[in-house]
Design goal:
Blueprint lengths: L7 H13 L2 H12 L16 H20 L5 H17 L4 H16 L1
């Protein structure tokens, strides 16, 4: 598969342009990229990661999704898909229900305070 290769200068130009974009413009860029052909196709990703990394990745996804949804950048259907991904990660981590109850109470109290 062919890709676009950018030199260091091009990366800086893109970064500067990205920083200068308003939230509305970033939302338009996201919509454009996420609406491109074949972006709805499912792909299988096989990972071997530690349970620690599963917890961290699920937290990153959960918090990122909430922030982006609050800004109005991602659509509701994308929000649901990413929340499902977060849940799937935690389920595949095969944590005990007792651990998950404690983890949820910790993350909820941390988010609230």
């Amino acid at each position: 598969m062919n890709g676009i290769v950018l030199d260091g200068y091009s990366h800086l130009v893109i970064l500067k342009l990205w920083i200068m974009l308003s939230q509305k413009e970033i939302g338009i860029v996201y919509e454009t990229v996420l609406g491109a052909p074949r972006m709805e196709e499912e792909v299988k990703i096989s990972l071997k990661v530690s349970r620690r990394d599963v917890l961290l990745l699920s937290q990153i996804i959960g918090r990122g999704v909430m922030e982006e949804q609050a800004k109005g950048i991602i659509a509701i259907n994308m929000f649901d898909a990413l929340k499902n991904l977060e849940s799937d990660l935690l389920n595949q981590g095969k944590f005990s229900s007792e651990f998950m109850d404690r983890w949820r109470s910790l993350t909820i109290s941390k988010a609230g305070g």
